[in-house]
Amino acid sequence: MAIRVLIVDDSVFMRGMLKSAMEGVTDIEVVGTAMNGADGLKKIESLRPDVVTLDFEMPGMTGLEVLEHVMKLRPIIPVVMVSTKTQKGARITLEALQLGAVDYVAKPLGEKSATLQSFREDVLNAVRAAAASNRSRIGKKQEETVVEARGFKGAPPNVIVAIGISAGGPATLHKFVPAIPQSFPPIVVTQHMPADFTGPFAARLNEVSKVTVKEAEVGDELLPGTLHLAPGGRHMKVEKHIGKLRIALDDGPKVSGFRPSVDVLFNSLANVAGNRVVAIVMTGMGNDGSEGIRLLKQKGAVTLAQDQASSIVYGMPKAAYETGAVDRQVALRDVPAALHESIDQLAAVAK
Fold it and tell me: Distance of alpha carbon 156 from its chain centroid, rounded?
């Protein structure tokens, strides 16, 4: 059965762009369009779509105001935000994701065929991820309790924590990263995100976290108490340089459907630090990370995956778990404690 989509956007041009992006596929059907927020809320009630795409800047009610109404009245309907590729667009998008939006797409800059094709892929991926989301998780806010990694005695030498995450990731990271102590080993995170969004997201996460969160840069040394977030649109790798582990970035083709790719990060870690890695695949659509976690497990890493009940989208963690290379599945509330236990496990083996 096709995914029924309602488009809410005040721009005739963008409504046409979004509708065009979803044409020609058998699993998605645009069942209606709305020209403003009030019209959108009425059509959500009358059409009961499976997914809503929602613009931010509209006359009358803004996209955020519409989203707040949806979260109160119809929180089981997944919403995909349509954003501009600007600093303001990034900031509002991150706010929407914390309010309960499942995913987002950035409006295309220009009308080149490659740009439009990339936009179409982003729209289809976001709509499918939203439709596949765990509706009981939509709108779950910060009141959800995450167990802190208590009693952590400091980072053992050379241990690295690696996280792969996608749809549902910003809200998920905001829930558990603040529960990680400052003395944790270095953390590297590949979150599928556009180039203009990762810098503001890292800054926003840094404000609420004990560890230092930064957008990764070429040559960054992996040090305890620091979280390196892969910059949007670039693959992040870890390489050994003069005896130290450092960040490398490249603009190579997409891997497992994404750039940055979790598989690229995990594969690089398997090459330089396999038996000193704790890796976890978290909420997201697709199978990025499943090949990398298999390779890491072969090299002696401790491997985890987020469980189905706590994942907003149980695609990536499911694919990783089905490889047979995941040691155990973990609920979101237990992720910091599970990472702590896994780090102690690696440290004990190293003694």
Answer: 28
Residues 195, 231: contact at Cβ < 8 Å? yes
pLDDT per residue, tens digit, the chain (351 aa), is 899 999 999 999 999 999 999 999 999 999 999 999 999 999 999 999 999 999 998 988 999 999 999 988 877 889 999 988 666 778 888 899 888 899 999 888 766 666 788 889 999 999 999 999 987 776 555 445 787 877 787 778 889 999 999 999 999 999 999 999 999 999 999 999 988 899 999 999 999 999 999 999 999 999 999 999 999 999 999 999 888 999 999 999 999 999 999 999 999 999 999 899 999 999 999 999 999 999 999 999 999 999 999 999 999 999 999 999 999 999 999 999 999 999 999 887 765
122, 209, 288, 290: which one is catalytic? 288
Contact 16, 60 (CB under 8 A): no
Residue 150 domain flag: no
Annotated catalytic residue 192: yes
Can you give the CATH number for the domain in which 189 is found?
A: 3.40.50.180
65 CA to centre of own chain = 23
Set 192, 228, 235, 340: catalytic member: 192
For residues 132 and 318, is the Cβ–Cβ distance under 8 A?
Answer: no
| 136 part of the active site | no
| 231 lies in the same domain as 281 | yes
The verdict on whether 166 is a catalytic residue reads yes
Q: What pTM value is reported for the model?
A: 0.91
CB 193 within 8 Å of CB 284? no
Domain span at residue 27 reads: 3-131
In this structure, the answer to whether residues 255 and 170 fall within a common structural domain is yes
Q: Could you tell me if 43 and 169 lie in one domain?
A: no
Q: Do 28 and 115 belong to one domain?
A: yes
Instruction: Give the residue carrying structure tokens 């069942």.
Output: 31
**Do 250 and 109 share a structural domain?**
no
- Catalytic residue, candidates 83, 133, 166, 290: 166
